[in-house]
Design goal:
MetI-like fold, 15 helices, Sugar ABC transporter permease, transmembrane, UgpAE/MalFG_permease
Length: 335
């Protein structure tokens, strides 16, 4: 009888022990927050992770930009470099630049029209090449894409010297061909002295170097378009031109927007292709763009304040284009 009376007490004790939480734990409702705030996400944690990269960007980009802006507000030349003194002139450099007819009649038209021509030809040629590659099989498409990427991999310096040799007035390929057919006399035509022909050669150079990026980007977009759309359009009797404007162009409008704005940014600040051509390094003032003009004023003339002001103007133009680019990216789904 004693054993039977003890059984309920033992069962109750077992139930009580089973209901207790394991040793070292607490109920969920009464869990204490760990010291130091580790139990919640700190708002400073993302900034701490970004801090190394932001410091590097600040040192490499922000400080030089601030330095250029400060120099643009000074009459800074070789004397100031030697003495370490500052000769502040405020916005006088900008007044001189904006009041100079050379900016409006030569430099700015060279920069804007050259960039516009390069962008249009680069996008058109790159799109045409992408459409051609899209019609090929997988193997030949890879071969063609690899071949055109060679033009993009060639450094701008090397490509510029190749085009300078092609149009060399004495021993160039074009001069030799035209001489062979009796079109010109040897050494009588120099394409680098005239403003229009100079920029025509520079445009060929820039377009040749830039169209592979557009071609590969547009090709990637073309490969995402379902074949059924074009097949249905063919059944309806639509021509290739009609299918491009009715199907391909609307679908790839975000791609075209991105490659166009990126090409505009790159072509506005072209320097190497202009400076390395004969006359572009200071011998022919009629072919300067904003980048070359800033370099010549700074390092050839020793007017670092004036050159910095020109660089700031170019930066403001590129900043405006960049803002358009960022706005386009944010509205990509709406295009």
């Amino acid at each position: 009888m004693a054993d039977l009376r003890a059984a309920p007490d033992a069962s109750a004790a077992s139930a009580t022990l089973a209901d207790r939480p394991p040793s070292g734990t607490e109920p969920t409702g009464t869990r204490r927050r760990r010291p130091g705030g580790l139990g919640h996400r700190s708002p400073l944690r993302p900034w701490l992770l970004l801090a190394p990269g932001l410091v590097v960007l600040g040192v490499l980009l922000l400080w030089p930009l601030v330095r250029v802006v400060l120099l643009s507000l000074q009459d800074y030349g070789l004397r100031q470099i030697a003495s370490g003194e500052s000769n502040w002139v405020g916005l006088q450099n900008y007044v001189d630049i904006l009041g100079d007819s050379y900016l409006w009649t030569t430099v700015l038209p060279n920069t804007v029209l050259f960039a516009l021509a390069c962008v249009v030809l680069t996008v058109v040629l790159g799109t045409a090449v992408a459409l051609f590659l899209n019609t090929l099989g997988g193997f030949w498409r890879g071969v063609g894409a690899t071949a055109i990427m060679v033009a993009w991999a060639v450094p701008a310096i090397t490509g510029t010297y190749v085009w300078v040799w092609i149009f060399d007035p004495l021993n160039g390929l074009v001069a030799s061909v035209l001489e062979g057919v009796g079109a010109i006399e040897p050494g009588t035509v120099n394409w680098f002295t005239e403003r229009l022909s100079f920029y025509a050669i520079a445009t060929l150079n820039v377009v040749h170097h830039g169209f592979p990026f557009v071609a590969i980007t547009v090709l990637a977009g073309l490969m995402t378009i379902p074949h059924e759309l074009h097949e249905a359009a063919k059944v309806d009797g639509a021509s290739a031109w009609r299918r491009f404007w009715a199907i391909t162009a609307p679908i790839l409008r975000p791609v075209f927007a991105v490659v166009t704005i990126l090409s505009t940014i790159w072509d506005f600040k072209v320097f190497t292709q202009i400076y390395l051509m004969p006359g572009g390094n200071g011998g022919n003032k009629d072919v300067f763009n904003l980048g070359v003009w800033s370099y010549i004023e700074s390092f050839a003339q020793g007017k670092y304040g004036m050159g910095s002001a020109i660089a700031v103007l170019l930066t403001l133009i590129l900043l405006g284009i960049t803002l358009v680019y960022m706005r386009t990216l944010f509205k990509e789904e709406e295009l």
